[in-house]
Design goal:
With 505 residues, the chain is α/β, with parallel strands linked by helices. The protein has helices at residues 44-51, 74-80, 97-101, 117-130, 146-159, 176-191, 203-209, 232-240, 295-302, 325-330, 340-343, 351-355, 360-363, 372-385, 402-414, 432-447, 459-465, 488-496, and strands spanning 6-15, 18-28, 33-37, 59-64, 67-69, 82-85, 164-168, 195-199, 212-217, 220-226, 259-268, 272-280, 284-288, 310-315, 318-320, 333-336, 420-424, 451-455, 468-473, 476-482. It has 2 domains: 6-240, P-loop containing nucleotide triphosphate hydrolases (Rossmann fold); 259-496, P-loop containing nucleotide triphosphate hydrolases (Rossmann fold). The protein contains 18 helices and 20 strands.
Length: 505
């Protein structure tokens, strides 16, 4: 048996008030794909950041390629062959896609100080063709969807002389088609002898792509599961330390009521074209489609966060004008965006402040002061119901794990008690137990009469929760499927085939 490429032995790490890792050991063999799983806050990302030199361990050692080492920076780790694709993307939003791809890896004309733009473009097109992604290289990254930005991160990693590739939630914004292509890339890398650490909350994907699965719980080793012979129940039990129970998201659904929202001919840059649909009281309307289909862009226009160039929006039969998110919130519309750090959180503020940010009017006792007790009660209720792992409600949000940050965003919008709730990838980066809780919350809200637009790249999530499924393709509505018509096959057929058909609700 070949010696491990990587061994991390008895690693411990503490942050103020939190013991993130406690005597953790982890190894990866040459050409091996290892899953690294655990609930949010279990220590997965911390362990990998110690490997890459982002953090220094308080105790323990790292043996890389047979030699004891401790990388002092990401750059040093990359030079040695370790590349991380973080859950939180590191693209520069105001740079073009091609500039982000080659940032720090520029190709020059011979020994001159001038960039070889044709060579970089050829290499970029070759990479994106390999990843089966269509992308305009000259578009600023801030204008691209999170999913496309994630594919740029993957392309960056493939530019390096990588020996070990760490992927932290790489499929969180990818559809089934893009995920299949990514898995093909992982298998090809494995054949070339490249090792992969695959961190994900999508358990079926972990079983499909990995050789074995290492589990962390509360910052400690919780054993391993063989990806070929292990079961989902065994893995979940190791992750959460208990039986999770049924993972069914929605057992039946009430008959939706009267129409509360009608969208007619909605259009806006860069891709939304003549989108029309309706939404009924207590209905969950799922939005499916491939990367670039225009789902997020449609949601941002509807919420007033992006410019509308055409179309009408009617609430309960009356046309309304939504020129800003403030207008939307005043009308009872809430939007949970897919990019929590850029669009949803104020990172230097604490959990209490972020969670109550959208309900200041409700919590005000006097003209200039907030009711602190009400703030604390509201915060505590959602921290408990969503199982948000924090040391205190005054903890700075930037110090939380990605999944717990996402749960703070969900709580913030649930606190507004909206009549229309737009959820854009609501379970992205959330562990399996928390995902089941979020699904139950969404189902309960619909039962209580809240109308929900659910945008998700996970077809099982769309199918489990939705009363109807609207499929978008290249900025248009391709079809609307009733619950008994919607399957993974019918959705993907509509999402992939461009025939110009537009079906209105």
């Amino acid at each position: 048996m070949a010696a491990p490429l990587l061994e991390m032995r008895h690693v411990s790490k503490s942050f103020p008030g939190v013991r993130a890792l406690d005597d953790v050991s982890f190894s990866v063999g040459p050409g091996e794909v290892v899953g690294l799983l655990g609930e949010n806050g279990a220590g997965k990302s911390t362990l990998m950041k110690i490997l890459a030199g982002v953090y220094r361990a308080d105790a323990g050692e790292i043996v890389w390629d047979g030699k004891r080492t401790a990388f002092r920076s990401i750059h040093q780790a990359q030079e040695a062959g370790v590349t991380l694709i973080f859950q939180e993307l590191s693209n520069c939003p105001n740079l073009k896609a091609i500039e982000n791809l080659f940032l720090g890896r520029e190709i020059f004309r011979g020994r001159s100080p001038f960039l070889d733009d044709p060579a970089m473009r050829r290499k970029a097109l070759e990479l994106f063709e390999y990843l089966d992604v269509r992308i305009d290289l000259d578009v600023e990254v801030r204008l691209l969807s999170t999913a496309v930005q994630q594919m740029i991160e993957i392309a960056k990693a493939l530019l390096t002389n990588v020996k070990l590739l760490v992927m932290d939630e790489p499929t969180s914004s990818l559809t089934d088609r893009e995920t299949s292509r990514l898995f093909k890339v992982i298998r090809e890398l494995k054949q070339r002898g490249v090792s992969v650490v695959f961190i994900s909350h999508k358990l079926s994907e972990v079983f499909e792509i990995t050789d074995r699965i290492a589990v962390l719980r509360d910052g400690r080793n919780a054993g391993e599961v063989d990806a070929k012979t292990g079961t989902m129940e065994e893995l979940i039990n190791r992750m959460v330390g208990r039986e999770l129970g049924s993972r069914a998201a929605r057992v039946g659904s009430a008959v939706p009521g009267l129409e509360v929202l009608r969208v007619e001919g909605l259009s806006g840059p860069p891709v939304v074209k003549d989108v029309s649909f309706n939404l009924r009281k207590g209905e969950i309307l799922g939005f499916a489609g491939l990367i670039g289909a225009g789902r997020t862009e449609m949601a941002r226009i509807l919420f007033g966060a992006a410019k509308k160039t055409g179309g009408r929006v009617l609430l309960e039969g009356k046309e309304v004008r939504i020129g800003s998110p403030r207008d939307a919130v005043a009308l009872g519309i809430a939007y949970l965006p897919e990019d929590r750090k850029v669009q949803a959180l104020v990172l230097p503020m604490n959990v209490r402040e972020n969670l109550t940010l959208a309900v200041h009017r409700v919590l005000r006792r006097f003209r200039a002061f907030l009711g602190r007790k009400k703030e604390e009660e509201l915060t505590d209720s959602y921290v408990s119901s969503l199982r948000i792992r924090i040391a205190t409600r005054e903890q700075v949000v930037n110090d939380l794990s990605g999944g717990n940050q996402q749960k703070v965003v969900i709580a913030k919008w649930l606190a507004t008690r909206p009549r229309i709730l737009i959820l854009d990838e609501p379970t992205r980066g959330i562990d399996v137990a928390a995902k089941a809780e979020v699904h139950r919350i969404v189902s309960d809200l619909a039962s209580q009469g809240v109308s929900i637009i659910l945008i998700s790249s996970e077809l099982p999530e769309i199918l489990a929760l939705s009363d109807r499924v609207l499929v978008m393709h290249e900025g248009r509505v391709k079809t609307v499927l009733e619950k008994d018509q919607a399957t993974q096959q019918t959705i993907m057929s509509a999402a992939l085939v461009a025939d110009g058909v537009v079906v209105r609700a």
